[in-house]
Amino acid sequence: MLHFLDPEISRKRRFFLYRYRLLGIYIVIGIASLILEVICYHWLQKISLHDPAATLLGLTTSILFAFWMNVHFNFKVPIAKRYKAFFYFVLISAGSAAVQFTFKKQLEELGWSYASARFTISGCFFLVGYMLHRKFSFADYKKVGVAIYANGVEDIKKIYEKVEATSDFIHVDIIDHTFGEDYLDPKAYRAEVIRAYWPKKQIHTHLMSKEPSKWIDKIAPFVDAIFIHMEIDEDVSKAISLIRSYGKKAGLCVTVQTPVKKLKRYAQSVDSIMLLAIPKPGESAQGFDVRILDKIKDINTWKERPNFELCVDGGVNEKNIGMLSVDSVVSGSSVLNHPQPVRQIMCLQTSCNYEKV
Known about the structure:
Layout: H1 7-20, H2 23-46, H3 53-73, H4 82-109, H5 114-137, E1 143-149, H6 156-163, E2 169-175, H7 190-197, E3 202-208, H8 213-219, E4 225-229, H9 236-245, E5 249-254, E6 272-276, H10 291-299, E7 309-313, E8 328-331, H11 333-336, H12 341-349
Helix pairs in contact: 2-3, 2-5, 3-4, 4-5
C-alpha cells in the first residue's frame, strides 16, 4: 500500500492524467476527420474520380483537417515548431493508413463498405497512432525545477506542500555579499532541510558567489549538482574540479550580460550550462530578457551541444516557455505564486502544449 503512496509515483500518475486529459478531444477530431474522408471519397467517386486517386485525396483531406484541428484546439504547438510537427504528423498518419489499407482491402473483399472497413481498422490502430503523435508530432518536454532561496526567509515546508514531488528537480539559490552588498550570507544548512523534504529528488544548487569554493564543501553532501558562475574571482577550472572531487555534477552559469562564447572552452568540462534570463541575479519576479533567445540559438549550434544540458533560469513562465529550445528551466514566482502550482509545473514541463495561454 505504501508503494502507491510514494510521491514519485503520485507525480507520474498526476502528470499522466494531465497529459492525457485531452484524449477525448483527440478522439472527436479523429472521428470527424474519418467522416470527412469518407464524404470526400464518395463525392469524388460521384464525379467519376475512382481509386486510387479518390482514396488518396480523401486521406490527404483527412490528415490536413486532423492536424489543423489538433494544433488549434488540442495541442498548443508553437508556430516555430509546426513544420516539424506537421512532418511527423503526416509521416505517422500516412504510415498508419498504409497498414490500415492493407487490412481494409481484405475486409472490402468480404463485402464490407469503405466506411465500415476504414472506421473499424482505424479504431484498432487508434491508440498506437495517438502514442506516436504524442511522442513525436506534439512532443516538447522540458525538465522543470522549482527555485528556493537559502536565505532563511522562505518557508520550505509551505513550498513542499504547494509543489510536492511534481517538479523534476529542486533548485537551491545561494547568493552571498560578494554578488552584491545588499545580500547577506545565506544559510547553507537549508540545503540539508531541502534534502529532507525531497529525499528522492535531484537537488541542484546555484552558487551566486565570487568565491564559490567556500560554499562547495558545505553544500556538497546534500545536493546532486552545483552551478558556479563564469563571473567569479577564482579559477573556473579549479572550481569545476573541486565540484567533481565530491562526485557531484558540475554546471556553469552566466548572466545575460556575459557573452556565451566565453563558455565554449568549458563545454566539454561541465554537465550543464545555465543561462540567466533576468538582469539582476538573486531577485525573483523579474521580467524575462529576450536577449537570452539569441544566446540559446547560438549554443544550440555548438558541436559540443550533445555533451551537456542547457537550462534557463529567471522570468520563465507559460507565455515564453514555448520559445525556449532548452532541456530544462528553473521557475520560482511563476510556480509558487500561481493559484495551482502543481498544474503550472506540468504546464511548463509540456511547454504549455496542452493549455490555452
